[in-house]
Amino acid sequence: MNAVIQPDNAPGRAPRPLRIAIVAHFAYGALTGGRSGHVGGVERQTTLMARWLAARGHEVTLITWDEGQADDLRIDGIRVLKTCRRDAGLPGLRFFTPRWSSLERALDRADAEVVYHNCAEYVTGQVYSWCRRRGRRFVYSIASDMDVDARLPELGKFYERWLYLYGLRGAARVIAQTGRQRDMLRDNFRRDATVLPLPCPVPGAGDAGAREPTGADCQVLWVGRIAPVKQLELLLDVAGLLPAMTFHVAGMPYEGDAYSDSMLTRARAMPNVKVHGAVERDRMNAMYCGASLLCCTSKFEGFPNTFIEAWSFGLPVVTTVDPDGLITARGLGAHALSAADLASALATLATDTGKWRAAARAAREYYWNNHALDPALARFEQVFMQVVEQPTPAGAHPGGTIV
Fold first, then answer.
1. Phi-psi sector, 111: left (phi>0), alpha (psi -120 to 50), beta
2. Is pLDDT of 386 > 70?
3. What CA–CA distance (Å, rounded) separates 328 from 335?
4. What are the helix (H) ranges across 94-199?
5. Strands (DSSP E) along 262-378, which ranges?
6. For 219-251, what is each residue's pLDDT tens digit?
7. Nearest one of 17, 40, 14, 18 to 27, comparing CA atoms
C-alpha cells in the first residue's frame, strides 16, 4: 500500500513549481461559472484543483473541448487549451482525427511534466500513450465505482475498454475516492491506489448554514444529471409519499432525451416539486442554504461532490449510496434504498429536531476535518511532486506497473 500522505496545509507557494496539465474535456463550463456545457462533479473538482495549483505557483494547463472559446486563454492563472469540437469530424473517423490528434497537439503545447485525468474513458489510454512516448508522468483519478467494476459497464465498446485499461495499468499513480474503490481496483485489476479526500471550498462569509426544518416547512434538495443512473423517478416516488414537504430538483436536462423529458414532465405536474433546471455555480450556495436535507437517489456514485458541498453547510444527506458506510457510521444523515425507506428517513430528520441538529453538526465537523480546500488539495499536490521526482527503473517506461 502507498504511504499516508501528510500535506503541509500551506496555501503559500509550492516547494518547486511543476508544469501540470489537466485533461478534462467538459471542464470549460465549470471554469467559467457553469454558464455553458456539462458541469458535473468531475468538472467541479478538476477546476478547483487547477485554480488552487495555479495559485500555488505551478504552471497549470487545462485541456477541454472547443466550446466556441478562443484558444490559449488565461483564466485565473490557468492556461486553457482546446481540442476540437465534440461533434467535429466524420463518424467512424473522428475518433482518430480530429479528437485524438487535437488532444495530442494540445498536450504537446502544454509540455507538462505530469498529466492528470479523472474518469474512466478511452481518453485515459490516449493521455497515457502521450505520456509514455514523451517520458512524462500520468496520474489517473477514479471518479465512480463503475470505473473499477470488473465489467466496466459504462464502456460499451472494445476499444474504449482496451484504452482505459491501458491507461489504468500504466499510470504512475492511481487515486481513489474511497477505500471501497481501492479494494475493487486491487481485486479486479491488480492495481493499488492512494485514497484521497476530495476538495471543497469553504462557504462564503455571507452564506448561512442549512435551513433547520420546522414542522411542515422542510425543503429537500436533489442535485444531479437527469439521467437513468441518477433515478429521479425514485425521488418523485418519495415526493408522492411526503406531500407536505417541498422537493427541489436542480439538474441538467438532456434536450430530446426520452428519459429526461418524461421525468421532467412528471416532476412539473407534482405540486410539491419545483424544477430549477441547470443551476449555475454561483447560485448553488443559495440552494444549499435554502434546503433542510439533501436527497440522493443514484444507482451508484464515487464520492459525490454534492455530499461534500452539503456537509460544508451542515446539510444532512439521505441517500441510496453510502461511500464506505461513512454516512451511517458518522451520523451524517441516513442510508436507505427504497422509496418508502427514503421517505421514512426524511420524515424522521424533518420532525426530530435533536436528530437533525446532531447530523448537521456531524456533517460540518466531518467536512472541516477532511475536505477543506487547502489540506485536501495539498495531498494531491504531493502526489504530483512524488511521481515527478520518483526515478524510472532501468529499462522501464515512466508509467506505473501492475501490482
1. left
2. yes
3. 7
4. 101-110, 122-134, 158-170, 179-189
5. 273-277, 293-296, 317-319, 333-335
6. 999 999 899 999 999 999 999 999 999 999 998
7. 40
